[in-house]
Amino acid sequence: MQTVQRLPAEELFKAEIEALIAAEKDPIPTGWKMSPKSVLTYICGGKVGDTTITPKYVGNRRLVEICIATLVTDRALLLIGEPGTAKSWLSEHLTAAINGDSTKVVQGTAGTTEEHIRYSWNYAMLIAKGPCPEAMVKSPIYRAMESGSIARMEEISRCASEVQDALISILSEKRVAVPELGVEVPAQKGFSVIATANTRDKGVNDMSAALKRRFNIVVLPAPANLKTEMEIVQNRVKQLSAGLDLYAQCPSEDVVEQVVTIFRELRTGATLDKKQKVKTTSGVLSTAEAISLLTNSMALAGSFGSGEIEPADLAAALQGAVVKDEENDSVSWKEYLENVMKKRGAAWLPLYRACKELN
Q1: Is residue 2 part of a domain?
Q2: Residue ending a domain, choose from 219, 252, 282
Q3: Domain coverage including residue 78
Q4: Alpha helix locations (H) across 222-348?
Q5: CA distance linking residue 115 with residue 242, whole number of Å
Q6: Is residue 3 part of a domain?
Q7: How far is CA 338 from the centre of its chain?
Q8: Of the candidates 165, 192, 219, which is a domain's last residue?
Q9: pLDDT tens digits for 138-153?
Q10: Which terminal residue of the chain has fewer beta carbons within 10 Å of its beta carbon, N or C?
């Protein structure tokens, strides 16, 4: 029985990774577990022997090929996109397939320092023994350089400029100087960095041109159409709910379609048929948010309902997801209910009534 709340990708999809490695016939780059073609199969799905490889990323296959090809070279990879476009998800699965280890992660925040990029010290040991290798606390990027593997840098634009500058020298020189020990640690072949940046956070700490030049930049778009986004949402909700004690059935296709339709229309400011304009809201309303909303609806249905998602469960989750700014979003949501949802016919009326009652 799984007791860990969230397994890393390499453990969750261990059987698929092992099947791909066992069936490998193509050249494998130094430091990699499998060939670029096998990594592509792992990410985009396929079949190897008797094992079905589930798609981890549903979208433009060419973008995934560019990402993998970048990591074969000595350039780092930067994934940019709107919130919820699977940047972190793709980053994790790329490192899981390539190295069998997706856990060398630096989470970028306002509190991230240069020590998180390079190294720090165990000060009790430092005082007792002085500068020595045993007293050093290596960062995930430092460990990736030593082992010739890939490190992940999440939300790089949230880091202060001095932290970003520390990464420039590492990506340029491919080595870390440790003056306290009088050594320089060179990066082993296979070392790289996958960073992610959120386009909504562009103004937090905008990346310098010097840092951008060290990356090959791939922009991940939002799902192209309703069908694609529904497929992503259904697959992820099924995967997530399998590891949680929700005691509820997965949402039906009709429920998923309603949620994704609402999100796409409020996100783009128009109905799907482009015949009516809609006021947008301040929330992100991304694919990831839709997945979270449906998982929360399952929890409501399982804990306090029949075990099947009802309009009331969905309405409660929608209210929390859509109305982030009470003053402005509440007005937009009310207008959407009256001008769009109410006029959609019998299939939408139960959800409309539940949302109106809650609102």
Answers
A1: no
A2: 219
A3: 9-219
A4: 226-242, 253-268, 287-304, 311-322, 326-339
A5: 37
A6: no
A7: 34
A8: 219
A9: 999 999 999 999 999 9
A10: N
- How far apart CA 114 and CA 124 sit, in angstroms, is 20
Angle at 286 between CA 282 and CA 290, to 5 degrees: 110
pLDDT, mean over the chain: 92
Domain presence at residue 311: yes
Alpha helices in the chain (DSSP H): 9-12, 14-22, 36-44, 61-72, 87-99, 114-117, 123-129, 140-147, 161-173, 209-213, 226-242, 253-268, 287-304, 311-322, 326-339, 349-358
240 and 155 fall within a common domain = no
Total length of the chain: 359
- The single-letter DSSP state of residue 344 is G
Residue appearing with tokens 């951008």 = 212
On the question of pLDDT at 243 being above 90, the answer is no
Phi, psi of 319 (to 5 degrees): -55, -45
- Cα 209 to the chain's mean position, in Å? 24
pTM: 0.89
